[in-house]
Amino acid sequence: MTEQELLETGYRKYYGDKLDIYFKRSLCTHSRVCLKGSPKVFNVRNRPWIDQREEPDLKKLIAVLDACPTKALRYIAHKEEEKWNSNKEKAGFIFLMKKVWKQVKSFMRS
User: Fold this and answer.
1) pTM
2) Which of 14, 17, 15 is nearest to 56 (CA)?
3) Could you say which of 33, 37, 68, 102 would form a disulfide bridge with 64 (CB–CB 3.0 to 4.6 Å)?
4) What is the distance of C-alpha 48 from the center of its chain?
5) What's the CA gap between 12 and 21, in Å, rounded?
6) pLDDT in tens, 46-89
């Protein structure tokens, strides 16, 4: 699901550095998978109750999110930003190569 779809269907967004977590209370059956799997991130005594800064292991956090039996917890990783930066670097390289090629062609003509 896209972020827009998640938000439109009632999920609440919890921002993070490497991924954003989405939670839909009405789907939660309180199976405690998240609380047991990563108690530092999912702590009902804290506000907000989801604080992913406490979990340095991204793979573990994703495993806990994927283990949610009702999909009340979902996430979207920030890979788009990485792709954008990668494409930006490629575009810069292509621009540089076109500039070099123009210089080479100009040199060969003279």
Assistant:
1) 0.69
2) 17
3) 37
4) 19
5) 8
6) 999 999 887 778 888 999 999 999 999 999 988 754 444 445 45
Token pair 């779809």 is at which residue? 5
Q: Give the number of other CB atoms < 10 A from CB of residue 52.
A: 22
DSSP string computed for the chain: --HHHHHHTTPEEE--SSEEEEE-GGG-----HHHHH-TTTB-TTSSSSB-GGG---HHHHHHHHHT-TT--EEEEETHHHHHHHHHHHHHHHHHHHHHHHHHHHHHHH-
Question: In the structure encoding, which two tokens stand for residue 28, read together?
Answer: 């939660």
Cis bond upstream, residue 48 (ω within 30): yes
pLDDT per residue as tens digits for the range 5-16: 999 999 999 998
